[in-house]
Every structure is written in C-alpha cells, then in structure tokens.
Amino acid sequence: MTKIITLGSINIDLKKSVTVDRVTQLSQTYPWFPSRGETVTIGKTQPQLDENIEEQYYGGKGANQAVAAAMGESRTQLLGMVGRDENSYDLLKHLQSKGVDTDAIQQVTAPTGVAYIYVEPDGSNRIIVVPGANNQVGRQYIDDCYRTITTADYLLLQNEIPIEPVHFLLKRLANERTPPTVILDPAPPQGTEKLLDHDVISYITPNEHEYASLSEHLDAFSGTIIHKHGGGPVTIEGEQTGVLSPPAVETVETTGAGDILNGFLCSQLAEGRDFHEALRIAVCAASLSTTDVGAQQSIPQMERVRSLRNDHFDWISMQLRYL
Ligand code: RIB
Hints:
Elements: E1 3-7, E2 11-17, H1 20-29, E3 39-41, E4 55-59, H2 61-71, E5 75-79, E6 81-83, H3 86-89, H4 91-97, E7 100-101, E8 106-108, E9 113-119, E10 125-130, H5 139-150, E11 154-157, H6 163-173, E12 181-184, E13 201-204, H7 208-214, E14 224-227, E15 234-238, E16 242-244, H8 257-270, H9 275-289, H10 302-321
Parallel strand pairs: 1-5, 1-11, 2-9, 3-10, 5-7, 6-8, 11-12, 12-13, 13-14
Antiparallel strand pairs: 2-4, 9-10, 14-15, 15-16
Bound molecules: alpha-D-ribofuranose.
Alpha-D-ribofuranose (RIB) binds at residues 9, 11, 13, 39, 59-61, 64, 115, 127, 129, 160, 255-256, 258-259, 295.
C-alpha cells in the first residue's frame, strides 16, 4: 500500500470565539496580532491576551494533515515532537485512534505546542502558535528518521517546525533515485521562499495570505501551485493549470480546512487518482470540514466526501454539457 509521511507540528488548539469589534481591538493593541486566515508564530510563552479559552481541540498543521490523509484511507505516518505532557491530552492515543502511525514521534522536555485560535462569527480564524516541543525538531531527528522518510511515496510538509532541518532533508532527498513526491504547505510563509528552490517539491498549497507574501518568488518554483482562496475557487498554476469551484456549504468554522485539503489531496494522489480528480475530492473534504468546529474533529468520513464530490462535480459537468 502506498505510504504517506507527514513531518510537522503537533499542537493543542485553544479556541476563543470573538466578535469583530474584539478582533479590531486586539489588532490595535498587538501589532503582531494575525490578520484573517493568518498564522503567527510567537516566542516561548503564552500570549498575554487576557482571553478565556472556551474549547480545546487536537491540532497542528502537521498532525491535521496526517489525520486527514489517514481518513482519506491512506497508510500514514506522522513525524514530529511532543512534550512529555502529551499524555495529559492523550495526544498520541488520539492520533493512533485515527489510524496514524506515531511510532517515530519523539517526546522531549518542552511543553507540547499550543495554538490560540480566534474564531469570528463568519467562521474565519486567526492563529497564534507557541511552538514548544515542535521547535526541537533538528538535524539529528531528521537523520534518525531519514531511512523511514525514504520509504514514503508522498511527503507532506508545512512550516511550523524549524526550517533549517527541512532544507537539510530536501537537499538529501534530491540525491535519492526515487524520492517521495513532496507537497509543501507554506504556512506560515516566513522563510519558505527559500524552500521553493528545491526541485524535489512537486506541489505548494498557499492560501491568499501566503500567496501574496510569496508572490515575488513563485516564478522560481518549477512545480504546481494550488492557490487556496478560503471558500472561493481554488486556482491551479504552474506545471498544471485550472480552476475548481468548491461546493457551497454552511460554514461554521474554517480552522484546519487548508490542512484537510492537503491531507485528502495527498491521500487521493496516493490512491492513484489523477491530479484534478484528487483535487476535486480534497476540495469537498475541506468544504465539509468547515461545517463543524475544530481542526481534526471536523475531518469528514470518506463516504460523505465521496457523496459530496459526486453531487457537486457531476452537477457542474452536467451544466457544462448543456451550455
Ligand atoms: O491550520 C490550522 C492549524 O494551525 C491549527 O490546528 C493550529 O494548531 C495551527 O497549527
């Protein structure tokens, strides 16, 4: 069976629902406060935002993508780091229950990563990440996992672990005869412009904010750019081209929707679907996830995804036939 490896962040998400006025106030008080759809990484301690947290979920872009790939029915392993406090959240047990292989996840002496998620009434989010254990991923860990990584057919990357070991890994993979197909989510975008030079990356999946911040560097990228626009059409540029309109759904919360698109896209490519069909399925999975709260908690079952894919895209092709 085709194998997917995700190397990335593992977080506990702490969610707060906020009004538009409160968000405006926070943005004025803290110049670094994320804009809509943006993830900002801050230092070692929790932000002093005087907010009561309402809900707690499993998150982290790496973990979200791994769980989505597993729910897309692919063999999936997650690589990354958690704190020794992980058992107070039952984090590894949770990942295993979703079908993710956690054997190579390392426990380190640092708190598990935490993300503070501010959700507005329209479901959009602003994320502040305190990386904790995620920041301890370094060359040594990549070295330790390297042989395992080369057994993968697909590799999912994001930008919530230190970037230097990721460069180190991509350079090494370029020397492999059959490296895994690499899908990079440049989120958050800071520093990822340099990753675009690695020819071993086949796909990048920026949202509007990440696309804008990388725009000057995108010409250097030789693969396919999947440009996500929240609930709007996904545009495909570069090696492959196209536009894909997602189905309309009743959005409650968008946290993790981009990750869910990546995880399902990868699982469907791994299942042997052609790129456009894999993306249709991924877009439906991401749309469905916005109808529920939380990141991993909102990942839909494959059966629901298939059914929405058939209803939505078959309807579109029927309309096109009658034009
Ligand atoms: O993309 C959503 C994720 O970003 C959240 O789960 C949070 O943990 C941050 O990593």
